Amino acid sequence: MSDALLSALAEALAELVTAVETSDEDVLDPDTAVAWLESTGHTLAGLTAADRRTLDGLFRAAALRAPEGTRRDELLKVSGGFGLTEDTHAAACDAALDHARRLAAVVRAADPATPVPGRP
Asked: Domain tally for the chain?
């Protein structure tokens, strides 16, 4: 599957989930909405950790393409609603990546002529 297709499907799913979650009782029966969301959540729970992480990134990217406001805020909640952000391994990987990026930024910004302390 191409990246463009994956991105489009993730954005469509995020939009649909947001529409279901924010619809009024007059528009959509709450029991039906819960059944749809639980079924979708159950399907997504069967994904591997790597796929869940990828989907989380796709949902977040779709949300960030939306203009700032309540719609974007609701789209940003989709990953959390399905438990995609509760992966402790992913959080540890993100923290390690953040540290590596900060270290790389410090090293790139350092003056090469600065003496590095060493052992005598």
From this structure: 1
